[in-house]
Design brief:
Number of strands: 18
Strand order of the largest sheet: 3-2-1-14-15-9
Strand content: 5-15%
Bound molecules: 5'-O-[(L-methionyl)-sulphamoyl]adenosine
Number of helices: 21
Radius of gyration: 26 Å
Largest sheet: 6 strands, parallel
Mean pLDDT: 96
Structural class: alpha/beta
Oligomer: single chain
């Protein structure tokens, strides 16, 4: 039985030379929110993340710590990279490590196929290499060093001198694919996003694209080249293949791997930081073309989290661990904040002040306050049972119309990975509902039994609006919205929140009369209450 094609989204696989910081968690959180949203559209989804464990960078870190690279990787994956997924509440379907046999075997088989097809040849490489980037550089890529590196050429990302590599290696005929790549991107302008990333890729492709050395002979921490075991596969060539090896690349027809590949490949979205755009939008699709495989629908390059105006990085000692933020604000607020405050695709600065301000204004006071008022009023005025609504007046009709438009803007934004656009639309609805409560003054209506039906309508409207708010925010804030769902007593009639379809969220009237509304825990405690 073959399933329909899954919505397949990947994060980069992260280097295990160090523990994750919030820059890494940012990409994974974005991927998790996007895939949860697609699940709530009723799609079959596959969400892959993992770790990149070969190459000189990891090898040297392990050496400096007196352990083997495998021990180093094992220890870091167990102690840091797997746990961070729980810290940020990410639910990935698979986690691939490039040292796993399922990966190394498939890489070797793919490489052997390229060699047979004539896309690989032996040559000699001489030129600069940055171990921090694990990248062969062109002289034009380098910057002039300053301070202790005055007079030397340095990598602009790492600020440290490059090394000169001079080796006989195996080369991939990347240059042969430049024209096909240009044609592909001209025909598919959304295949690289945002536009700034698309333009960067096109201008690179229109320049001089050179063949790529895809093996190294001076160290052994990597996958052996199948026909030349004295060489190991260049770490990026190995790493990029994870997206396909993890879903069964090249497996025997009829096998489970082949079936998985058929229902998963090509990827819908490769999420990457803009630092690794060229690998993903030039080398990777050329490899796929050479292997006669379908190309991913989109590579989306997001911006950097900056600290003091520079890309946050552990090596520059500006890395903040995700748990430092999550311990203070919770995982929901972590996920919400970075996707709300920074336009996905642009750089953004993190500051505790900005995060605290938004947390207080938008989560504790905005959404959180609304969510706690509604159950309190239903308890007070209707013994905790949701009343049926009477006829809708203009105020209710306006809210219903706003919800319908917010729901469609949110969905359309999410499909473009415009998280901030979706959240802004959702916030406009939360604000409108808060205003509705203030204007309708249910506590005044409650004073006169003549207003009984009107009060029921207002209470129903607030709760039904909260139903939609919970469903819309669920991908961003799974914990708080699940608690809100419980408080609304919604599961009995509607099923679990995760199965609520976001394309149906704007249909008014889904909560039923008699639902048991309970006062639960505060969704977003005020910061002063959590301090100390
Ligand atoms: N191992 C490679 C990727 C191989 S994918 C086939 C790599 N790893 S990395 O750990 O250095 O970085 C991976 C990703 O982490 C970046 O592309 C980006 O998505 C994220 N980030 C790392 N630092 C970041 C910031 N300061 N800001 C935002 N994202 C950052 O490159």
């Amino acid at each position: 039985m073959s399933e329909s094609k899954a919505f397949y989204l990947t994060t980069p696989i992260y280097y295990v030379n160090d523990a994750p910081h919030i820059g890494h968690a940012y990409t994974t959180a974005a991927g998790d929110v996007a895939t949860r949203w697609h699940r709530q559209r009723g799609e079959s989804v596959w969400f892959l993340t993992g770790t990149d464990e070969h190459g000189q960078k990891i090898m040297r870190t392990a050496e400096a710590n007196g352990v083997s690279p495998q021990q180093w990787a094992d220890q870091l994956v167990e102690s840091s990279w797997l746990p961070v997924l729980d810290v940020i509440d990410a639910v990935n379907d698979d986690f691939i490590r490039t040292t796993e046999l399922r990966h190394t075997e498939r890489v070797q088989r793919f490489l052997a196929g390229l060699k047979e097809r004539g896309d690989i040849y032996e040559g000699s490489y001489e030129g600069p290499y940055c171990v921090g980037c694990e990248e062969f550089k062109l002289p034009g890529d380098l910057a002039d060093g300053t301070g202790e590196y005055e007079g030397q050429k340095v990598c602009p990302s790492h600020g440290r001198p490059v090394e000169t590599v001079s080796e006989t290696n195996w080369f991939f005929r990347l240059s042969a694919y430049a024209d096909r790549l240009i044609a592909h991107y001209e025909a598919n302008p959304l295949a690289v996003a945002p536009t700034s990333a698309y333009n960067e890729v096109m201008s690179f492709l229109r320049g001089e694209v050179q063949d790529l050395s895809i093996s190294r002979s001076t160290f052994d921490w990597g996958i052996p080249v199948p026909w030349d075991p004295a060489q190991v596969v260049y770490v990026w060539f190995d790493a990029l293949l994870n997206y396909a090896t993890a879903v069964g690349l090249g497996d025997e027809p009829g096998s489970a791997g082949a079936e998985k590949f058929a229902t998963t490949w090509p990827a819908n979205v490769h999420l990457v930081g803009k630092d690794i755009l060229r690998f993903h939008a030039i080398i990777w699709p050329a490899m796929l073309m050479a292997g006669e495989l379908a190309l991913p629908h989109q590579v989306f390059a997001h911006g950097w989290l900056l600290v003091g105006g520079e890309k946050m990085s552990k090596s520059k000692l500006t890395g903040i661990a995700p748990s430092q933020i999550v311990d203070h604000f919770g995982s929901d607020a972590f996920r919400y904040y970075f996707l709300r405050a920074i336009q996905f695709g642009a750089d953004g600065s993190f500051s505790w002040e900005d995060m605290s301000a938004r947390y207080t204004a938008e989560l504790a006071n905005g959404l959180g306050n609304l969510a706690s008022r509604a159950p309190a009023m239903v308890n007070k005025y209707r013994d905790g049972l949701l009343p049926a609504a009477g006829p809708s007046a203009d105020a209710e009709l306006a809210l219903q119309a706003l919800l319908a438009s917010v729901a469609s803007v949110a969905d359309e934004s999410m499909l473009r990975l415009d998280f901030a656009g979706a959240l802004a639309a959702m916030k406009s609805f939360v604000d409108a509902v808060n205003l509705y409560v203030t204007e309708q003054e249910p506590w005044v209506l409650a004073k006169d039994p003549a207003n009984d039906e009107r009060l029921s309508t207002v209470l129903y409207t607030i709760c039904e609006a909260l139903r939609a708010i919970a469903v819309l925010h669920h991908a961003f804030m799974p914990k708080a919205t699940t608690s809100l769902w419980d408080q609304l007593g919604a599961e009995a009639a509607l099923g679990p929140i995760g199965s609520q379809n976001v394309t149906d969220v704007g249909r008014w009237g889904q909560l039923s009369e008699g639902a048991v509304i309970t006062k639960g825990a505060i969704l977003f405690p005020r910061l002063e209450e959590t301090a100390g």
